[in-house]
Amino acid sequence: MNGVVKIDIKQLKYFIEIANTRNMSQAARNLFVTQPTLSFTIKKLEAELNTELFDTHDKTFRLTRSGKLLYKKGGEIVKEFDELVNKIQKMKSDSKETIRLGLTILFAVQYMQQISNFIATHQNVELVIIQNGSRKIQAMLAENELDIGLVSFPNTQSQCLTIEPLNTSTKGYNVHVVLPENNPLSNKKELRFEDLKGQRFSTLSEHFMLGQMLFERSRHLGFEPDIAMVHDDLQVLLYSLQKLDSICLLPIEYKQIGALDGLKWVPLKDKHDYFPIGIALKRGTTPTKAVNDLMREIKKN
What we know:
Helix content: 40-55%
Distance between the termini: 68 Å
Shape: elongated
CATH class of the largest domain: Alpha Beta
Structural class: alpha/beta
CATH architecture of the largest domain: 3-Layer(aba) Sandwich
Number of domains: 3
Radius of gyration: 33 Å
């Protein structure tokens, strides 16, 4: 036999399956190929090696001496090849960059299109999204538990974080007082913080800017807020208002997502009635190309 022998892994796998099953029809079913395709492949392999691999006189596909040798050595080659492919695929998986993005529930909804666009165009990046309040997200960034945050001001970790204000269609959120329609304050066109004295509150925790703001502003004005519930799920807070006869402070922008019947959203007139938002990073870190791409996508909002 002259020339270079050309055998590929697929031919070896087909040959080994026939040797294992000793049945051409069963082997074809196991390999999800047609019987003629399998038969042609084996004939081509035998022609390439210039030898018969199976003794088919009794239709049992017994291996010849050459077939036994190819079965033994070919099986080793196939095993090594599969292990090599697995290692290469694992290396590719291991090299996948992970970005940990922190943001609030509201921002997750407002920027979902941009986030989806980034995921669709960066298949080599695993984007892990952590939802929490802006104060908590800033703290997590400071502790290197996140890589980037979409947060509201103020910067509570100014010694170690930078926050770039967003100059997009969504630049921040406006604070409203949400209360049951039977609450006398629901008839007001706007409410000042002083008007809320004596009310019961369902509130976000101090992980959120609004949760912290409630306590700071109340105490600054000389009263301790009467807390009926603390919860970090905005929808849970809304459901609690009528049952607990309470009020809460929420972004009006959330009304489009979680509006409920029987509630009024009244603008809050206060020095803290608006919170701008921005992209937060830890000082001294150099964003990767993927993180820069994510920031550019967010800025398209």
